[in-house]
Amino acid sequence: MGPNVVLVTGVSRFLGGHLAARLAANPAIDRVLGVDTAQPGPDLLRRMGRTEFVRADIRNPLIAKVISGAGVDTVVHAAVDQHAGPGGRATTKEMNVIGTMQLLAACQKSELVHKLVVRSTSAVYGASPRDPAVFTEDMEPKDLPSSGYAKDAVEIEGYVRGFGRRRPDVGITALRFCELVGPHIDVPLTRYFAMPVVPVVCGYDARLQLLHSEDALAVLERAALHDLPGVYNVGGDGVLMLSQAIRRAGRVPLPVPSAAVSPLAGFLRGARLVDFSPEQLRYLGFGRAVDTSRLRERFGYTPRWTTAQAFDDFVRGRGLRPVVDPENVRAVETGVGDLLARLR
Asked: How many whole angstroms separate alpha carbon 47 and alpha carbon 155?
């Protein structure tokens, strides 16, 4: 059964706002409610069309009145935030975890809610030198995330599973997104690659699997419109090594000893350039890749952008001018490779 009244959280941000716009453009849906603590910008608000914006804090139990009063039958929780906002890390954690708990409590009280879609992250698998080549949805992390957004996501998924046991009649779809990139995405990873000089940990070259923001929107929309319960890894095909991504962006790598990583992260945070949690620093050291077979075969979606294509679109869309021309770098690499081949 398709949705009649959909509530989307986090509509002042890219994913939530653009998802609400897509759903509002669907004539088969009677009403779309967009919830956030801040009103979307004028451009996004226009895009959202007939979406009914509700200024509400999902940490407040009053969210239950919004859901019951509007007769909401489908909830898309897209408000889980990756980076610390104006209130700092403590406020972000409260919004992520306490907000999700209150939202689930509100859904539990409503007899009309029959579908819940939750934006999660592949960061729940952690990042460790003992990781497998790829994670499937059924695998457990080798080292549980101990801080930051990744720890929030682990807690959120735990609460969602508990909700599923209490309300087995509700179809729950959990989407574990790989790191998002795109022309309009502003997260620590995109800020990292936008720096002219990119610090890297000496001796490490992480594997990065990325997801284009347009693919993320398409997956959220499909999950809202169709009954596809389950947990799904969502990411573009293939991986990029960190060194490859830096070259493709025309950035200059700055090797940093592992002992200096934390002080450097503190400096970047203080300068308001990039705010990395310890878990994100581990990701840049070890990387992570996931198996997306279930997404293609059971969920029925194949991402349009590969990891490399998504990254290149981010570089083009942000208008990043290369500090080092990638063509020159590739020419030097090819020349060195040919020279080494002749010397063998």
From this structure: 33
**207-208 and 197-201 beta bridge pairing:** unpaired
Identity (one letter) of the amino acid at 103? Answer: L
Distance CA 225, CA 6 (A): 10
Cα separations (Å) of 248 from 93, 147, 165, 217, 277? 34, 30, 46, 25, 25
Band the pLDDT of 159: cuts 50, 70, 90: very high
3-state DSSP call for residue 343? helix
Q: What is the pTM of this model?
A: 0.90
Instruction: Name, in order, each residue with C-beta under 8 angstroms of 66's C-beta and a sequence gap of 6 or more.
Output: 7, 33, 35, 54, 56, 72, 106
E-state strands within the chain: 5-9, 31-36, 52-55, 74-77, 115-121, 171-177, 179-181, 197-201, 207-208, 210-212, 230-234, 240-241, 252-256, 287-288
DSSP state of 321: P
Q: State the Cα–Cα distance between residues 110 and 75, nearest whole angstrom.
A: 11
Distance, CA of 69 to CA of 126 (rounded, Å): 39
Strand partners, 88: 85
Two structure tokens written together for 191 = 């800020």
The yes-or-no verdict on residue 302 having pLDDT over 90 is: yes
Q: Say which residues have a Cβ less than 8 Å from residue 190's Cβ, sequence separation at least 6.
A: 181, 314, 318
Structure confidence by residue, pLDDT tens digits, 258-295: 888 888 777 777 766 677 777 888 899 999 999 999 99
Q: What does the chain come to in residues?
A: 344
**Joined tokens for residue 29:** 């849906």
Provide the pLDDT for residue 336: 46
Find, among 165, 81, 157, the residue nearest to 118 by Cα. Answer: 157
What pLDDT score was predicted for residue 89?
Answer: 66
From the number of C-beta atoms within 10 Å of its C-beta (0-12, 13-18, 19+), residue 229 rates as middle
Q: Cα–Cα distance between 335 and 92 in angstroms, integer?
A: 49
Q: Are 82 and 188 in contact (CB under 8 A)?
A: yes
Q: Using CA atoms, how far apart are residues 166 and 312, in angstroms rounded to an integer? A: 44
For 298, the token pair is 């059971």
